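Lab notebook, bench 4. Continuing the backlog of folding jobs that were queued last week. Each job is logged with the same field layout so the records can be merged later without manual cleanup. Today's entry covers 3-oxoacyl-ACP reductase FabG, a 245-residue chain. Filled in by technician R.K.

JOB TYPE: sequence-to-structure
TARGET: 3-oxoacyl-ACP reductase FabG
LENGTH: 245
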Amino acid sequence: MRLKDRIAIVTGGARGIGRAIAELFAREGATVIVLDLLPEGQQVAEAIKASGGQAEFHKVSVTDKPAVETLFKHVDETYGKIDILINNAGITRDRTLEKMSEDEWDAVVAVNLKGVFICTQAAAPYMKAQKYGRIVSAASNVGLRGNFGQTNYAATKAGVIAMSKTWTVELGKHGITANAVAPGFTMTEMVQKIPEAHFEAIKKSIPLGTVAQPIDIAYGYLYLASDEARFVSGICLTIDGGTSR
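JOB STATUS: finished
OUTPUT FIELD FOLLOWS
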């Protein structure tokens, strides 16, 4: 098992890509701490345990710094370490530039960018103390090429890539890697709401002719969180079927 005895925190682990990551990591031997505001996170943890894995669910917002710090302290005190942090939590509030409200901008920045900062800042001291850590954060191919109606979302995802490169420099000497994953269209609850005609157009725009499944993205996270990626840091792994070629 590629993550045997590792302790992994997965934010936004209640559904979609986050759930796929949590379940895959558990199958690969990790104890998974699922962090989300959605109650479905408890179901994810219970399903993992029912399958013989180890998991906990905690209803915590990544924007709540004191709550995040308390949770990470609990994890370290309970398991003696924090090996892996998956910064997956994210939201969208799509609107064109001229119509986007300041509240819509602030909400996306708070979760997608500040939340990643808060969680990584909380995890770093524990990883530094043990001279080991894997930080993998959710970017998007939108952060590389932009997208209509997503000024806020694209800005945060580009920011995640930049933060990851910065953490590579700051934390590398402590045995900590920092990387990002940039998915393209993935069959999550959000994508399933897209009108069929538009969805078909999206598929035709992807060189592989289809959209990703959450597990396709989760395997990228698994690689970057594993010891196979010991010497991989500061990259953005794009998984979008060739869209960002």
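OBSERVATION: DSSP finds eight helices and seven strands in the chain.
SIGNED: R.K.
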